[in-house]
Model the fold of this input.
Amino acid sequence: MSQSSHLKADVLLLLVTLLAAAGWIFSKEALAGLPPLLFIGIRFFCAGVILAAVGRRALMSLSAKQLRIALSTGVLFAAAMCLWISGLFYGDHVGEGAFITSLAMVLAPLVSRVIFGEKLALATWLALPVATCGLALLSLRNGLHPGLGQLFFLASAVLFSLNFTLNTHMSAKVPVIALTTVQLLTVGVTASGLSLAREEWPQQVSAGIWGWVAASAVIATSLRFFLQTFAQSLTPVSHAAVIMTMEPVFTTLMALLWLGETMSGMQMLGCFLIFSALLINRWRAVRVAFKGLMR
Done:
């Protein structure tokens, strides 16, 4: 693979990570005018419709078995997204939430061990206690008193790790764009249905709020997916994983600049430990990426 392809992939993956971080800000702003489940339903349904228009051939070619696989993982993804948006709605710190949610990547190997019996790497065993300490520091408020938002984020991280593990095993059986489209539409329909049953919908929604919804659906979801898929075709998975580990860091910086968030010393230490756990968990990928940069 040429050096120019690696550079292009790095730039695109950096952009993907920035778009993912921006999605947190877009979502937080949209929640100022929409209830959480309704917002996530609209966002993912719109994103799913966009992908369905682009990948309609792959979608129409799905077998009944492939459709069942996509729907089952889609329901799990919907549950994870509903918990995540609840964490964003009830939580008081976006940056902290981003680091807690990123624990999904540390938990994924453990989930894979439980479900598929895969052997855990030494890096995962080392990362787990570091991540646990980081999470504990984020929850220590005159004792161990985690907030409601933190609990939602942690629950979503567990489900995201399960969804990631299943997707890794199922993606070989279902075309990626068709799998993603069905999952996005499933989230949209599921969250909208839950919202209809549980939430009070606003009588009016300002144009500004709809703008944030559109940015979330088109930029932070559909565009991000296309760029990520293309970029990953240009570079090794290990290299891509290291760059995308930066999402919680970029999210925290955006929350600082846009929302004016600040962190206490204990919060910063907790986030640092969780980020360290992410790097430890992907140490082999970090080492490979570092060697590539030194060439």
Summary: The chain has a mean pLDDT of 87. Residues 13 and 231 are 6 Å apart (CA to CA). DSSP finds 14 helices and no strands in the chain. The two ends are 13 Å apart (CA to CA).
